[in-house]
Amino acid sequence: MKCEEVHHFMDTYLDGELDLGLQVELEQHLALCPSCRSLLEERRAFRAFFVAAVGGYKASPQLEAKVLDAVRRVPTKEKFSLWRQPWIYATAVAVMTVLLALKILFPDTEREFSRQAVLRRSSSLSTSHFVDVASPNPVVVKPWLAARLDFAPPVVGSPASGYSLVGGRVDVIENRSVATLIYKHGADVVSLFCWPPDKEHPSTSEHSIEGYRVSTWSNAQCNYVLVSKLSNRAMQEFVDSFRVRIQSGAYF
Fold first, then answer.
1. Using 50, 70 and 90 to split pLDDT, how confident is the model at 136?
2. What is the mean pLDDT of residues 143-164?
3. Lowest-pLDDT choice from 98-102, 158-162, 185-189
4. 3-class secondary-structure state, position 93
5. Contact assessment for residue 3 and residue 36, using Cβ atoms and an 8 Å cutoff
6. What is the DSSP secondary-structure string of 32-55?
7. What distance in Å separates the CA atoms of residue 52 and residue 47, rounded to the nearest whole number?
8. 3-state DSSP: the chain helix, strand, coil percent, rounded to 5?
9. Residue 16 vs residues 13, 88, 113, 145, 248: alpha-carbon distances, Å
10. Rounded to an integer, what is the distance from CA 170 to the centroid of its chain?
11. Distance between CA 148 and CA 180 in Å, rounded?
12. Segment (H or E) for 73
């Protein structure tokens, strides 16, 4: 990807709405281009300024009721001509601005964690960079990760029947370093991301992103995001088994 393309996609990237493949290309370019990284930081700084300066406004219930009532009373034939009025376009721009402000002020943090975890998983598969430390032994993997992070992640050697630890690596999600543990069962690969629960506490949920199944949860030790292509049943069995091992202290 060239600099011009990066500039074109940068706002979409910052909004978290860029296609996964393009995002991988863009981030690869950023890693090698100081100029584009500088531009990215400038735009992030502008957004931070916007968040700090913008105020929140909400229409009164009376005004909202009047607008809705007026829309309902417009005859069908007049609705088409209504869109030709200049104030309609001004209102549409105002609404879009408010929606953008809400998105910046109140981002879907949990969704963003999951989206970035999927990106890291996809990138590791495309580059064959599964782990930084390869070992099925938690006694080897945990100290390696702890030496490179500001926390020591709990490491389970066999989190579920048939699954074994492949190793671990350090990733970055939402501008913080996280531990990534990789497990395998036959051809099935499970990527488990974890970091200490500071301000963010992902709720227990399951959803799909870019063809991957994502499960999130949190406990007193860590926030977790699990990414795989397991079936719903296999995914739930893995998560339940892993959580039981953590709760019972069956980890290193």
1. very high
2. 95
3. 98-102
4. helix
5. yes
6. H-HHHHHHHHHHHHHHHHHHHH--
7. 9
8. 50, 20, 30
9. 5, 28, 11, 28, 37
10. 16
11. 12
12. helix 61-73
Give per-residue pLDDT as tens, 165-224: 999 999 998 888 999 999 999 999 999 999 998 766 778 888 888 889 999 999 988 999
Give the per-residue pLDDT at 20.
Answer: 82
CA proximity to 14, closest of 52, 48, 55: 48
CB 176 within 8 A of CB 194: no
Q: In the structure encoding, which two tokens stand for residue 213, read together? A: 């199944």
Helix axes 20-32, 109-126, angle to 10 degrees: 80
H helical segments located in 137-194: 138-146
Looking up tokens 């735009």 gives 43
Total count of residues recorded for the chain: 252
The string of DSSP codes covering 101-157 is: HHHHHS--HHHHHHHHHHHHHHHHHHTT---SEE-S-HHHHHHHHHTTSSS-----S
For the chain, first and last CA: distance in Å? 43
Mean pLDDT of the chain: 82
Cα gap 88→62, rounded to integer Å:
20
